[in-house]
Amino acid sequence: MTRLLLLFLAVLNARLSSAHGGLANYTVGETWYRGYDPDTPAEEQLGQPWMVQRSWASIDPIFSVTDAGLACNNPAVAPPSHIPIAAGDNLTAVYWYWLHPVGPMTVWLAACGDAPDDSCEGADVNALSFFKVWEGGLLDGTLAEGNWYQKSFQHWDGSPDLWPVMIPASLRPGAYVVRHEIMSLHIANKPQFYPECAHLTVTGTGDALPTDEKYYAKFPGAYSMSDPSINIDVYSDAMKNVTNYTIPGPPVWSG
Ligand SMILES: [Cu+2]
C-alpha cells in the first residue's frame, strides 16, 4: 500500500473510532466545493476565499435542542464564498463516511436578503427563518431494524456517502444558507444532531418563497424534547413493531 493510502486509513480509523462525522464537501454537477474540516487548523481555513461552509469545530454531535449550534453547528464562522447553483439543480452533500443508522435527515434553506449583491456572510443564523426543502426518514421496516434513508445513503466500500437534493426550481434567486441536518436516534432518549451549513447563490427565473408561516422555523426553536419523534427509545418494547415515523419540524416546501 502506498504511504498516502496508509495515512488515509489511519485518519479514517481514528475518525471511525469516535463514531461521529459531518458534511465534508458539496458538489454541483462536476464541480466540488470544499467544506470546513475540523481536523485541519482553523487558521488555514477561516476566511479563505474558497470557503463556502460555516465552520464546525468538531465531529461531535449537538445534544440539546436549545443549543445555539443547532442552527449551523459551532462556532459557525461565516465563509466569504457562496456556491453558485441554478434553481432546479441538485446540490449534493458529500460525507466521507456515515455510521449511524437511525433517524431522519433534512435539508433546509433560509433567504439572507434581496439585494443584488446580497450575501449570507453577515447573517445571524439563529435569527434566520429556515424552511425545509427535503426530508428522508424511515423508508421501510421497524424503527429499530428498518431501512432509514440515513442507513441507505451509506457506503461501506470506502466511497463517499452522497446526499443529493434538488433546489426547488421555482425558488426566488438570491443568497441562501443551506442547512443539512442528520438526527441520530440510536441512543435511547438522547438524540444527536449533526447540522452543517453552507452559503448558496441561487440563480433562476422563479420568484417563489414559502408564503405560509407554517413552513418556517428557527434554530434553536424548531425542536422540543417533548416531541415523541425526538425524545424516543426506538429499542423499547413499545416501539418494537412500529413501522411509521413522523419527521420533526414543519412540512416540506417543494416550490
Ligand atoms: Cu456519532
UniProtKB/TrEMBL annotation:
The keyword Secreted applies. Residues 1-19 form the signal peptide. Its cofactor is Cu(2+). Keywords: Carbohydrate metabolism, Cellulose degradation, Disulfide bond, Polysaccharide degradation, Secreted, Signal. Coiled coil: none annotated. CDD domains: LPMO_AA9. The keyword Isomerase does not apply. Residues 20-245 form the Auxiliary Activity family 9 catalytic domain. It catalyses: [(1->4)-beta-D-glucosyl]n+m + reduced acceptor + O2 = 4-dehydro-beta-D-glucosyl-[(1->4)-beta-D-glucosyl]n-1 + [(1->4)-beta-D-glucosyl]m + acceptor + H2O. Its main location: secreted. Belongs to the polysaccharide monooxygenase AA9 family. This is lytic cellulose monooxygenase (C4-dehydrogenating). It comes from Apiospora rasikravindrae.
